[in-house]
Structure prediction request, 430 residues.
Amino acid sequence: MAAHPFISGALEGFYGRPWRQDQRLQLFQWLEDWEGMNTYMYAPKDDLYHRSNWRELYPDNSLKELKELIQSCHKKELGFIYSIAPGLDITYSSEDEWNLLIEKIEQIQNIGCKQFAILFDDIPLKLSEKDKKAYSSFAEAQANITNRLFDHFPNSKLLFCPTVYCGEMANYNVLGNEYLLELGTKLNPNIGFFWTGPEVVSNDISVESIQELRNVIKRKPILWDNLHANDYDIRQIYFGPYVGRTLELKNEIDGILSNPNCQFWANYNPLRTLSQYQVAKTEWDPRQAFKDSSNEWIQYFWNADIYNEEIQLLGDCFYVPGTMGEMGNQIIESINFILNHPPEECASHLVTFKSFEYRLNSLCTKLMATTNRDLMYDLYFPLIELREEIEYVSKWIEWKQSGTGEFQAPGLVPRRQGILYDIQNIVHNS
Ligand code: GDL
Prediction:
């Protein structure tokens, strides 16, 4: 079966603690409510049975939960893709391993799943001695087992995630990448093919880069979009819109699945704006989509005192990797200016800074009192850290303005210490 229709939705494919059952059910409600979304893919890296212990069948209690998820999706007319990641240690040529793989997929098929994915991301790029005798290359081993799966389950859709899944991993030479070229010719063209863009986390994905890839893999890819993922940096969180992809890009691909923040409640804007992008036909304004989505997000704070403007401020501070929203940029500009200019030139930037400090503190206070504790805990650490940093800068500015004595801010930033900071200090200052 081909990878049609266009797949669009959320992919739980990050490292760390998987989302909870009730969170997933909330997600399905969103996906059902939002036009343009039709799929959820189950791929939590740290579900033991998905990756590390892929050979083992799910115990009854986990299977029951998976069944509930599948049924809930189907009731809402959403696709549910179950994915398995055997690549860490599978022997591709072993019949015993093949049988275990089939048994596992049958277990999930028996609880109603009709779509599957086999993932080979983040694994060592080499074959075992036994496999070296059976296959001429890594690509051949993967194509072989994936094609076999496709044939074995003729009524199911199948997607595949390669080991080289972005331009960066092909040393930015996709056209010359042997592994991808071989997959292009050997992998059954009806099997979906994941791609994350030029990078693992791609700020921009150009139409040209995908056209180039299509020539190599001989099909349209499905984006595994890590734009809002934050599992690689626990101090980050992203509330910004779906950006860096033009509407034309949609003509070049077979779908987009967003692999967003580990913190479930952080994902309203990322996923909602993806749905807006999906339905946009001729015009796409991510900033407007962000504002509209932020206004909707408020209802989940369960706190009538929080204003639109405060939610946007929150989003602007934690936007997308490497980019802040308007208010985030303003505050950085002001701090930068104040730090580098004499106090008498800083009046307007001081106003910006003070107003930001006030609004941030007010937002934190309101958030601490919100009754949606689950959401509050999800946003807690990055927000508190930002508030502490601002408090520190504020003290520094006061001192600079006073023009006297030595700067003293006991117990603020220096409190952040430990092995990570020591290593970073050594590495980045050497
Ligand atoms: C990855 C992993 C993904 C992870 C993401 C962000 C793919 C195909 N795999 O490389 O599980 O969440 O980076 O850290 O993207």
